[in-house]
Amino acid sequence: ATPTSIMVGTGRGAELGVLFRKGEALQSLKDAKVVAVDKTGTLTEGRPTLTDLVITEGFERKNVLALIAAVEAKSEHPIARAIVEAAENEVISVPDITDFDSITGFGVKAHVNGELVEIGADRYMRELGLDVEVFAASAERLGNEGKTPLYAAIGGKLAAIVAVADPIKETTPAAIAALHNLGLKVVMITGDNRRTAEAIARQLGIDEVIAEVLPADKVDAVRELKARYGQLAFVGDGINDAPALAEADVGLAVGTGTDIAIEAADVVLMSGSLMGVPTAIALSRATIGNIH
Ligand code: ADP
Ligand code: MG
To answer: Where in this chain does the entry annotate a coiled-coil region (predicted)?
Structure first.
């Protein structure tokens, strides 16, 4: 490609809401074989709401919601906001706490009024030595509905299963279809529950799912996919996605995402829509000439 065609392509991208931060991205995107995509905030809105709260015997709903909201009030995870908002909607007063602790990819904990409150994924509960088997049927149903099941322990006892649901962005299905039309594989990489991730992938026709990935392991998932498929584009929005964005042949950040993700990316999708990915690839093919 000539410098002029790169300039024209970059300009056309800007008009379409696709910001090429580096010229090489426009040149290499045409060769992408696989698009790996973060789930939360990229495929989905990243704004989950609480949909279910099932309490075990001996606990009381309002009390459990107050305690878990007190802990989540200190967390920055989107799940946390869903739980705090649910407590606010039920006009539950949320106590203030001090000793908050976040275990990345697992959950959060703190003492509330002297009581230890722990909330997180099933693997967090397992780590705490708690058996979540009583909720097996609920967890299976919730996961199949594309909801994320979480568990709360109070005073070291399993107190509740909680579910949050994060709506798929309106533009996501068409973007996945467009990527398939361009001949690409689409793979989801997420820290979320496997069943939940697979349900969402099924709805979207995503080809492959790598779930329950710890934030530090996302970059390994990207390396493995590169080895298997060849040229890889990664799309993400979060702080956790920055290493994967850097490791990918081309990293594309959702423009509504975190500054850290945008900094690590070669391309920024200004509208926040995944539709920018097929647009960018088509533009690369048109500009560089290797077109169908
Ligand atoms: P992702 O952003 O893809 O969901 P994370 O690594 O941030 O991945 O989180 C993985 C899982 O860890 C979540 O799906 C949830 O089960 C658990 N988790 C993380 N933060 C919290 C939190 N504040 N409250 C409850 N669970 C949490
Ligand atoms: Mg995300």
So the answer is: none
**CB-based pocket (< 6 A), ligand 1:** 39-40, 72, 75, 77, 79-80, 105-108, 119-121, 148, 150, 190-192, 215
CATH superfamily assigned to domain 3-45+168-288:
HAD superfamily/HAD-like (3.40.50.1000)
Cα–Cα distance, 25 to 13 (Å, whole number): 12
Which numbered atom of ligand 1 lies nearest the CA of 106?
12
Q: What is the 8-class DSSP label of residue 133?
A: G
Clarify whether 166 is annotated catalytic: no
Report whether 284 contacts 29 (CB < 8 A): yes
Q: Which residues touch 117 (CB under 8 Å, ≥6 apart)?
A: 67, 68, 70, 71, 109, 110, 111, 152, 153, 154
Structure-token match 């996302």, residue found: 218
Among residues 162, 170, 168, 176, the alpha carbon closest in space to that of 84 is found at 162
Where in the chain do CATH 3.40.50.1000 domains reside? 3-45+168-288
Selection from 188, 235, 250 nearest residue 213 by Cα: 188
Contact partners, residue 176, CB within 8 Å, separation at least 6: 186, 204, 205, 206, 274
What is the location of CATH 3.40.1110.10 in the chain?
49-165
Residue type, 261: A
Dump the DSSP string for 223-252. HHHHHHHSSEEEEE-SGGGHHHHHHSSEEE
* Assigned token pair, 197: 């991730």
Mean pLDDT by 10 residues, the chain (292 residues): 88 95 92 97 97 96 96 94 96 88 95 95 97 97 98 98 98 98 98 97 98 94 98 96 97 94 96 95 87 42
Name the fold adopted by 49-165.
Answer: Calcium-transporting ATPase, cytoplasmic domain N (3.40.1110)
Determine the residue type at 39: K
Closest CA to 204 of 168, 235, 236: 168
